[in-house]
Amino acid sequence: MTALVADLRGTVLARAEGSLGESGLEVPVRLRVVEETVASALAAAGVGPDHVLVTVLGIPAPVDAAGESPADGGFWDSMNPGFAAVVPHGVVVVENDANAAALAERPSSGDASFAALLSGERFGAGLVVDGALLRGARGGAGELRVLDLVDGVSSSDGIGRTARTLVRQARAEGRVPADSLLGGDDEPDAAVVLAAAALGEPLALEVVDGLGDRLARVCVLLASLLDIDRVVVAGAIADAAGPVIDRAREHLAAWDLDPTPEVVASRLGGDVVALGAVARALDVVQADPLAFPLPAARPVVTA
Asked: What is the CATH classification number for the domain harbouring 284?
C-alpha cells in the first residue's frame, strides 16, 4: 500500500509504504494499515491531519458515485468496508483503482478514448471515452469478471498471476529443464519469466506468447465494445511487460480486426493508482474550491 501527500499543485511532498501481509483481506488489518500508512505519510510531509482537504483511497472494487461498492459477500465487501473512522481528514473519497489509473493517464493520452488496463494480479480497466471517465450505475464499468466467459482468456487473472500459473502447469508436466530460470521450488514472478524469454528459453517464450494472446483478446474486447483508440497497460507490471505487449501487437496485426487499438505501456509504474488518486483529489477541490477552507499550503493526501 502506498500513501502520497501532495499540495494543491499536485506536487508530491511525501510518501509512505505499508504492507498488508498475508492477512490483507481481513478488514481490521486493512483499516489499521491504511490508518498507519496515511499517518506516516503526513508525518513525513510535516503536515497535520487538520490541514488535509481531501483524502482519496483507491481500491480494487467497483465504486459508485456515493463511494459504495456492490455487496458481493466477499472480496468487494472487504475492499470497501468504510474508511471514515481511520482517515478523518477533510473530504474522504473512495475510488476504484483502475479509474484512478485512468485519471493518472489522462495527460499522456491527450484526446484519445482509452482504457487504463491494470494488468498485474488481475485485469481491471479504467475507461475514458470522449474525454469522460465511465463509471456505470453501480461503479462497475471496466470491471472485468466477464473475462471468465471469454474464449482464450477464461479469467480476469492479470499478466503476473497468469505467468505464475503457466509456469506451475509446466512444472507439473515435467517440462521445465533443470537449468532453467523457471526451475527450482520458488514460484517465479513475471519479471523472471520475461528474463528467461530474453535468454531464449523455449518455455518462457511459450509463456510470453500465451500472455500476449490473452492481452490481445482483452484489448479487442474493450475496443469492440467502446471504440477506444488506445489500451494503456498499467501498474507495476508495465515496466517489464514490453515483450508481452509486443506479442499482443503481433497477434492483433495477424487477426486484422477493426477497430484495433494501440497498445502501450504506462510510464507511471507502480505509482499509477496513487498518482491517479492525487489527480482525483485535485478534481474534487477544483470542482468547488469555495467549499473548502483554504489556510496556507493545505495539501491533499491519497492512499
From this structure: 3.30.420
